Amino acid sequence: MKVYLKDGQIATKNLTPGISVYGEELIQENEEYRIWNPRRSKLAAALLNGLEKLEIPENAKVLYLGASTGTTVSHISDIVTDGKIYAVEFSPTTAKKLVRLARQRTNIAPILGDATKPKNYLNITEKADIVYCDVAQPTQSQLFMKNMDLIGKDNAIGILMIKARSIDVVQKPKKIFKEEEKKLRENGFKIIEKVKLEPYEKDHITFVVEKNF
Questions:
Q1: 167 Cβ partners below 8 Å, 6+ apart?
Q2: Which residues, at least 6 apart from 172, have a Cβ–Cβ distance to it below 8 Å?
Q3: C-alpha distances in angstroms, 6 versus 11, 93, 140, 209?
Q4: Among 61, 65, 203, 74, residue whose Cα is nearest residue 143
Q5: What is the C-alpha R_g of the chain?
Q6: pLDDT tens across 55-101, in order?
Q7: What are phi and psi of 110, to 5 degrees?
């Protein structure tokens, strides 16, 4: 995976030199690099906290659920230079910013859609090598698995960002994480790696999974 260490921080090589996406620092060497802010991107936080078994190839097809304005999407866009990101966002207001980003970065295909209803965008996506899910709602694991089953390739890798407080504000995060992991295992998914996101994000965990049917 094309992630670099620059001045003690992680970075990606800028696909659109001279353009900063969310105010991140640009570093000029032989190439231009974008500092990847772990307080703005959960994937950056996971990588800094030791996530090591995730590989995102240059030609990967990525289904990204909960794309928001495209902060993390933009860094994955830097990595999958020969691939495609199908970026699903539910909010029309937020999706407008995503559309603007996609005009600069042709490997991003923005989709205004509901991640709980993958059949609605099935005909405009390709089968995905990677399904990335950052949708903060109680049914997150279920919608993630539905998308993996319907759009993920047989050997697809899944990245699931779990926010404990979005699932249950009363239960302890540790218990919630165990319950979500159990759901994944019971539905035929193998946990490859799990990483908590403190100090960058409170009560969050990243699961990297694969289909195990």
A1: 138, 140, 176, 180
A2: none
A3: 6, 34, 34, 29
A4: 65
A5: 16
A6: 999 999 999 999 999 999 999 999 999 999 999 999 999 999 999 99
A7: -75, 140
